[in-house]
Design goal:
The chain is of the alpha/beta class. The protein folds into 2 domains: 182 residues, FAD/NAD(P)-binding domain (3-Layer(bba) Sandwich), CATH 3.50.50; 121 residues, FAD/NAD(P)-binding domain. The chain has 7 helices and 19 strands. Strands 1, 2, 5, 6, 7, 8 and 19 form a 7-stranded mixed β-sheet that branches. A hairpin with a 5-residue loop joins strand 6 and strand 7. Helix 5 runs parallel beside helix 6. The protein is elongated and about 65 Å long. The chain starts with a strand and ends with a helix. Bound molecules: NADP nicotinamide-adenine-dinucleotide phosphate.
Length: 317
């Protein structure tokens, strides 16, 4: 087996790339697995976002993919080695740590986990049959596809994502039904107001989707009123989930401490996980803020924590 890397970074969103820039500039020669399919596409959730208006430094806003392209260029500029592949196995119980993709296995003295979080799904009875045939968990990625044009579309959820995606879909849809399980949206006030003002969006309150209907493509959903338990079918040509996220931590099940939702636990005020030498940053350990800028900030923290830890271990850069 070859000499261990100083640090391997898993994940290529704002957290992973910030960790890469900082560790590269500390001469730690980071290797990044940027992922391929596991997290959707390399670059994390901003790759499936349009306009980013709240990342400081861009007064006119910037497109999510453009911002991630800039992050990636900056990582490369300082010598990060980027491997475009999914990590399929990680052993953090033995040192040096081992990280493997289908193609290669690397050993590393330190590991920075920045694998983010993935959109949740409901696993409805018809979902396996109709997934990608009118069903999606990302309106911004898929909403403009011909299959959704001029159709009535359903968005499930009541948070900022559901509101944002409903508004986005009105560009293509004849109508958008926003289906929420309670009588109040979780979304911020400004997002709620946009929904209520949009004549193409109808909110259906106190309802859950119990199935998605259609043979080859989505033709409707079965709705259940949670107050009366009455069911009815609603015709639509597409269904979008916007019901939150699951942290991408399956690789570390049974190895690293996690909370009840599977988010990695880190020591407050640092990025240390339950295993010394393994650091976590970004959405994989943050269910509270979940912003690009906080992810980037925690990526910087992980790099600095990692650098100090390697010095303490006597690993020379
Ligand atoms: P979220 O805030 O966790 O909201 C998830 C929504 O889905 C909630 O309304 C929840 O209902 C509903 N839900 C969850 N599980 C469900 C189930 N099994 N069946 C039916 N409904 C279910 O997630 P998010 O909207 O994706 O937002 C995540 C974070 O990103 C938030 O911090 C948000 O502010 C941020 N964000 C910001 C923007 C923006 O500012 N432009 C855009 C998108 C997201 P309950 O309300 O009943 O729990």
């Amino acid at each position: 087996m070859s000499t261990p890397e100083h640090v391997v970074i898993i994940g290529s969103g704002p957290a992973g790339h910030t960790a890469a820039v900082y560790t590269a500039r500390a001469n730690l020669k980071p290797v990044m697995f940027e992922g391929q399919a596991a997290g959707g596409i390399p670059g994390g959730q901003l790759m499936t976002t349009t306009e980013v208006e709240n990342y400081p430094g861009f007064p006119q806003g910037i497109q999510g993919p453009e911002l991630m392209q800039a992050f990636r260029k900056q990582s490369l500029r300082f010598g990060t080695r980027i491997i475009t592949d999914d990590v399929v196995k990680a052993d953090v119980k033995n040192r040096p740590f081992t990280v493997s993709s289908a193609e290669q296995t690397l050993k590393a003295h330190a590991l920075i986990i920045a694998t983010g979080a993935a959109a949740k799904r409901l696993n409805l009875p018809g979902e396996q049959r109709l997934w990608t045939k009118g069903m999606s968990a990302c309106a911004v990625c898929d909403g403009a596809l011909p299959v959704f044009r001029n159709k009535a579309l359903v968005v499930i959820g009541g948070g900022d994502s559901a509101c944002e995606e409903s508004g986005f879909l009105t560009k293509f849809a004849s109508k958008v039904y926003l289906i929420h399980r309670r009588d109040q949206l979780r979304a911020s006030k400004i997002m709620q107001e946009r929904v209520f003002k949009n004549p193409k969006i109808e909110v259906i309150w106190n309802a859950v989707v119990s199935d998605v209907l259609g043979n080859d493509v989505v033709s409707g959903v079965r709705l259940k009123d949670v107050k009366t338990n009455q069911e009815r079918d609603l015709a639509c040509g597409g269904v979008f989930y916007a019901i939150g996220f699951t942290p991408n931590t399956a690789l570390f099940a049974g190895q690293l401490a996690m909370d009840e939702h599977g988010y990695l636990l880190t020591t407050p005020g640092s990025t240390e996980t339950s295993i010394p030498g393994v650091f976590a940053c970004g959405d994989v350990q943050d269910k509270r803020y979940r912003q690009a800028v906080t992810a980037a900030g925690s990526g910087c923290m992980a790099a600095l924590d990692c650098e100090r830890w390697l010095i303490d271990q006597g690993v020379e850069s």
